Amino acid sequence: MTVQQGNFLDARQVVQVKEGMTRAQVRFLLGTPMLPDAFDRDRWDYLYYLKVGRLQKAEEQRLTIYFTDDKVSRIENVGAPTEVPATEPAATEPAATEPSTSATPAAATP
Predict the structure, then answer these.
(1) 60: closest CA among 52, 68, 69?
(2) pTM of the model
(3) First-to-last C-alpha distance (Å) of the chain
(4) How far apart are alpha carbons 78 and 51 in whole angstroms?
(5) Which of 10, 5, 3 lies closest to 48, judged by CA?
(6) Among the CATH numbers 3.30.1450, 3.30.530, 2.40.160, 3.40.630, which is that of 2-78?
């Protein structure tokens, strides 16, 4: 049985969070934190837990964002992905072909 809980964090999102960002910018990138801290409104915890089967070790990730004056002042990352996978090669455009000279039918010679 698979158990998945929390905020799934993609590396592309995690690497974009920088010190100095506003709360709105962080919420736009990562979504609403799963565990808003009732005792410290300047701390947001993004937790993710994935357990596949009984025998495999659970995957746990924690990204904690600290705010000072409503701007990111510190980021703690425990297990959240930061390696962005290589992008897939862009679709190549078809090779340019020379214009065909047979666009108009050749006149028949008598």
Answers:
(1) 52
(2) 0.63
(3) 83
(4) 17
(5) 5
(6) 3.30.1450
**Is the separation of the CB atoms in 44 and 63 below 8 Å?**
no
Burial class (CB in 10 A: 0-12, 13-18, 19+), 16: middle
List, in sequence order, the alpha helices (H) in the chain: 11-14, 23-30
Question: For the chain, what are the domain ranges?
Answer: 2-78
Could you write out the three-class secondary structure of 6-26? Answer: ECCCCHHHHCCCCCCCEHHHH
Mean pLDDT of successive 10-residue stretches along the chain, which has 110 residues: 66 84 92 77 82 70 89 85 62 48 53
Range 22-61 burial, b when 16+ CB lie within 10 A, else e: eeeebeebbeebeeeeeeeeebbbbbbeeeeeeeeeeeeb
